[in-house]
Amino acid sequence: MAKGDDALARKRNRVRRKRLRSSENAVSARVAAIIASKRRRKSGKRRGCEGMCFSLPTPEDPFNERHGKKSKVDEPTDDAEDAAAAAVVKDGSPRKKDANTKKQPPAKAGAKAKSKAIRERATETEEGLVDFDRPSKFLVVCLNAIRDAVAPEDGGGSSIHGASDWGVELWRCCSAPAPSDVLDTSGASATLEQTAWLVSTACDIVARKERLGMVVSCPFLLYIVPSQEKAAQVRSICKPLKSLGIHSVSLHPGASIEHQISGLKSCEPEFLIATPERLLELVSSKEIDISSVSMLVIDGLRCLLDLNVTDKIYSIRDAISSNPQIVIFTDPSDKNVAIMARNLLHGRITKLSINDSVSSRSAFITQHVHFCPLEKQKTSKVKEILEQILESHAKKTSKVLLVAANGQKAQNLSSSLKLENCTVTDDTHGNSFMICSSVGLMNVLIKDRETIAMTDIGEFEIVLIVDLPPSVDEYSEILSDVARHVIGGEVHSIFCKTDAPLVKPLAEVLAKCGQAVPEFFKNLEPP
């Protein structure tokens, strides 16, 4: 009996599926890169050459921007992933699964994770909205992929979620509608955890832009490293993201330039890790175009200064015609680092640190301790310090925060400082005013230690502590929060004889931060 057409079609389809399964991993790296690039270009939006869109507009989607797909509100949410994302912020590590949960085979689990990641990438930013209270689901997927791929001999990836506080702050700086540049002063270079959060954040931004139909420039991320070893380390962290559609290429003197040129021609990498010399060599020969880079990372600025490649860093920055977001990792101990960071960062910045040491969190902050013998002479001392600040910041408008012991002292100080050259601004308590002079302007705000917690100290470049707190920890807390959005800052404090018990701990803080210890401390040390 002859077989029907349906049976023959099923047989042909079965043979075809078997052939595709057997040859899925048999393609070359170049062909796989081309296929992945084509999938990325087609993701989320119908191409014009594929015909007309016959779906009619609806009140919910009058311009057919969703292309017939349901909105995020109509689709069922994944409570498990929401809980995992919230756990990263709250606990620093993903929550453990229930012991009664049935384990899946590794092959099925991997395939399910990959398909789930692609689905999250497609639906995460359906309407372009970002929840800044916690990381996105796709960001958590990227972090988990890196964590699972880190080899045990390299320390494992279990500590990646432990850096969630720093990572979430970085993610907010980069994903905000008006992103700010980032200056990290934790150490000489980025750690494995910091690099993992950084590249995962970049992946999240790329996925969101592609979903919104925006053109993503390649390379999107340019990661500058000082050595071949550092390039290999960063490349190994980015490699697990290939299964999520993010390709990375490393350029360094350890490989032939012909091999790297062929690698660049075979795919369009979203992430580019390079040493300054090799990158400029390829840019000058027009083998790669970095003019449209959206994010520039300089890992180990102090080390790059020691290698005398300052001019190359500036040349790389000038080769980028766009206004990229810049992230710098550096050791703040050298004054030349602050000079170069100022030349590279021109807009609003956010200073971050993964550790809680005072020296790291108060990087680039200058501390001044002024001696005042008697308590009743503090008002005249405050006027003298404010005049010095006006002269040192000529032709600028400075924001100064004065910290008093309590509300009564703050009121007395405010009334005594309102002279003929001061104009009072609108403030409920009358503790905010402006000092006008021929040299410059100064906006002064007076707060007491009880209400300073409600004040954003990071917005002030200069802080004058009129009454030192009884504990040096409170001084360190104020010092760590000053001028978080600029490179530099000043903390002035008035030291009286009654503050003699603070001589030793305050001298230790000054020494840790690389500041000069005043000479009068030797005469005030308690017996």
Automatic annotation (TrEMBL):
**Residue ranges with Low complexity bias:** 26-36
Presence of the UniProt keyword Hydrolase in the record: yes
Q: The organism sits in which domain of life?
A: Eukaryota
Q: Does the keyword Lipid metabolism apply?
A: no
Query: Which residue ranges does the record annotate as region Disordered?
Result: 1-116
Kindly give the InterPro entries that the UniProt entry links to this protein: DEAD/DEAH_box_helicase_dom, P-loop_NTPase
Q: Where is the composition biased (Basic and acidic residues)?
A: 63-75, 92-101
Molecular function terms in GO for this entry? Answer: ATP binding; helicase activity; hydrolase activity; nucleic acid binding
Q: Name one Pfam family in it.
A: DEAD
The UniProt record lists the DEAD/DEAH-box helicase domain at 219-330
Q: Where is the composition biased (Basic residues)?
A: 10-20, 37-46
The record lists the membrane-crossing segments as: none
State the UniProt keywords alphabetically.
ATP-binding, Helicase, Hydrolase, Nucleotide-binding
Name of the protein described by the UniProt record:
DEAD-box ATP-dependent RNA helicase 40-like
Organism, as annotated: Panicum miliaceum
